[in-house]
Amino acid sequence: MIAYVIRRLIQLPIILWVIYTLTYVLICQHPGNPFIDDKTPREQRALLAARYGVVDTPADAPWRQRWADRGRTYVNYLGRLVLHGDFGLSSQNAGKTVGDIIGSTLPRSMMLGAFALVLAVLVGCSLGVLAAVRSHGPVDYFVMLYAMLGISLPTFVIGAVLLSFFGFTLGLFPVGGWGSPAQLVLPGITLSLPFTAYIARLTRAGMMDVLHADYIRTARAKGLPERRVVLKHAFKLAFLPVLSFLGPATAAILTGSFVVEKIFNIPGIGRAFVISVQSKDYGLILGTVMIYSTLLVVANLIVDLAYGLVDPRIRLEGDA
Predict the structure, then answer these.
(1) Of 43, 63, 231, 239, which one is least surrounded by beta carbons within 10 A?
(2) pTM of the model as a whole
(3) Could you report the per-residue pLDDT of 52-83, keeping only the tens digit for each?
(4) 229: closest CA among 241, 252, 213?
(5) Three-class DSSP category at 39
């Protein structure tokens, strides 16, 4: 396992470098210099030029000159990112760095995502176990209907319905904003519902397979209580598909918060990213992509390690 972890840690910066390069190349398809436009304040232009070597290359300049200027900016940005953790300056927010904006918005998105993920795991696993234990009955059919609706309905539809009914009609929860636990409920449910549905289906399928295994029949033959057989012996292996899903689900919940934060007016990193795209703040776009990519790679690594810990029979790649 140690060798596996070392290999993954070596791969991590390589993957992030490839993502950084591809994102930068896509950004550079913008005519002229993507980090400077007519709306960029003069003071911001001077800072970008001094710190990152950003040059306001004319749009009609030869392509070799344009890519040479962008190449110098690429190297300067990458160097400051690696050596100083500097994500650059926001071209549309004078006096603010990308790190300042991410630092003030990311904790809110992380809190919302963590709440939604915990809610999805708890509710999804509970419904999946219940559906498997009472398979082919009313409970099972209800859970599968719930899962189908959760998977089929887009997040913006779920959010609009919850906002209209529980926020405006009943007035049980705030309709938006950030700062109190009550303001976390509706966006958390909205964000978690599709993942709750997936986890419920995965848990049910895993439990259906495990409940017919020989060791489960042996445990029942020994007279163990059904509750202990289901929760201690069967659920442990049935949870493995859910565990493998949690890596990409973590990143998907964070990226899914883009829409939810916009609907509920939450000042998180997803909303900042949407605004940066609309205002063509490419420095902020680049920094946000790198943050989300890092979270995805690290989450997948943690899930791979946890997979081997939950089931000792599983040998990670390269273990002898």
Answers:
(1) 63
(2) 0.77
(3) 777 666 666 676 777 777 788 888 888 888 88
(4) 213
(5) coil
